[in-house]
Description:
This protein is 41% helix and 13% strand. The protein is α+β, with helices and mostly antiparallel strands. The protein has two domains: 8-122, no CATH class; 164-255, no CATH class. A five-stranded mixed beta sheet has the order 1-2-3-4-5, sandwiched between helices. The termini are far apart. This is Anti-sigma factor RsiW. The chain crosses the membrane at residues 98-117. Keywords: Membrane, Transcription, Transcription regulation, Transmembrane, Transmembrane helix. Residues 128-153 are annotated as: Disordered.
Amino acid sequence: MNPAHLDHDALADLAEGLLDDTHAASANAHLDSCAECRERSAEIADVSRILADVPVPPMPAELAERIEAAITAEAMATAGVASISHHRRARERGKRHLRVIGAAAATVAVVGAGAFVGTELMGGSLLDGDDHAATSHAPPADPPRETPAVGPQAPFTVVRSGTAYQTATLGDQVTALVPRSRTLPALASVPDRLQGCVQGITRGAKPVLVDAATYENREATVVVVPTDSSTWRVVVAGPSCSATDSDIVEETTIPARTP
């Protein structure tokens, strides 16, 4: 028994009542003053309760006898001149390993945790965290989802003023609207068709207004582009306007006004 801490076999024997009175008293006294060993003892008790609830599938008698004989022989070979109590504990410990093996096999069948018992069946205690690192068996991660391709952001804003543009008042409507265009509701993103349409009209110039509205009661986009410091070019494009089809409905030039 480790002078600093109780090993797992000692804690398991204590939990199952396999220690004689002297060793049990010594172990309990150690637990009173050692938080680490108390925690490990609680873990062993939890595992024992979990395994006790799992139906143990029948194990072939020949295999059970071979495993028990091997465990008992190993315990006797490493013990030197052992006491009767020690031999009894070794035999009971062997039976405990058989119960763990059977219950663990059932656990694997139920939850598919195949690695739960892997290294423990070959030797070493079930919860010996110092010698065996716990293996995580997380489900495979979902493949990364492809992000839809998004075109470059338009170099202009498309507003929705709600204006019903008319031929007779087009110039006045544009002149009144441009100064407050920044306060109007705007599209969150510009469709590729509309972006191509506007860029075809502006030919690289920055528009002072792009308004998705109506013209003579038809859906239209009104684009206002400075031609010089004193005039604006006003273009009304129809609903089919795109980079390849201008669909120009109306075009005029009006005096510029500072936005």
